[in-house]
């Protein structure tokens, strides 16, 4: 049985004060969550607060990106070693917004994934197709390519040490959610592709759904056989919404 994970991707939102408020509310509400796992991924500058604010809770934290390099003259980048030093458990890798706005290729994503693993961070590998790709029937081809960058490049064991997030680009921040059936179909496809390399890794790896997940649709999405939680954007910025999604994961744990 895979432990459900609900991870909040705060993206580039909030302030120091907002982050503290949000975490305090999540902390209070999370006292009722025992079986599902909760994580928050704030912007880099707020990571230093996580250790202090989340001490003694089971809530974990992570980054939204990591450098593909180890250390040195890479202005503006943050290494996996640094993230580990700040207590991160997770690192989101290859989010579609980074692929789009920072020209991250599959090769770069694989290097970042490798850096995360080398520092004992758990990478959350984002995969997902655009609306145009879906309309042209290319969903499986695109998510397979995103997955294979790691599965073929680093192996099934590397996939097993991470988490996958299926995030259809057309559902991110749009209010349009993939139907539970649409999402389940892609999740099953991804798991099957991993199974072709390793049955145990396929059975163990958690595949999250991301894209306009909210309290109203979380239960049905997370209730699908191959959906093991959510990577939450907008709804992760409102404690009550985020906690309602965590409660849906708890009910499915
Ligand atoms: P929304 O939940 O705002 O659609 O964002 C999803 C996402 O991109 C999480 O990484």
Structure description:
With 253 residues, this protein is of the alpha/beta class. The protein has a single domain (5-251), classed as TIM Barrel, CATH 3.20.20. The protein is 45% helix and 14% strand. It has twelve helices and eight strands. It has an eight-stranded parallel β-sheet with strand order 7-6-5-4-3-2-1-8. β3, α3 and β4 form a beta-alpha-beta unit. α11 runs parallel beside α12 (239-251). The protein binds 1,3-dihydroxyacetonephosphate. Residues 9, 95, 167, 172-173, 210-213, 231-235 line the site of 1,3-dihydroxyacetonephosphate.
CATH class value: Alpha Beta
Fraction in helix: 40-55%
Q: What is the N-to-C succession of helices and strands?
A: EHEHEHEHHEHHHEHHEHEH
Largest sheet: 8 strands, parallel
What is the secondary structure topology, with strand pairs?
Elements: E1 5-9, H1 16-29, E2 37-41, H2 47-54, E3 60-63, H3 80-85, E4 90-93, H4 96-101, H5 106-118, E5 122-127, H6 131-135, H7 139-151, H8 156-160, E6 163-166, H9 180-195, H10 199-204, E7 206-209, H11 215-222, E8 229-232, H12 239-251
Parallel strand pairs: 1-2, 1-8, 2-3, 3-4, 4-5, 5-6, 6-7
The structure holds 1,3-dihydroxyacetonephosphate.
1,3-dihydroxyacetonephosphate (13P) binds near residues 9, 172, 211 and 231.
List keywords for this structure.
253 residues; alpha/beta; 8-stranded parallel β-sheet; 8 strands; 14% strand; globular; binds 1,3-dihydroxyacetonephosphate
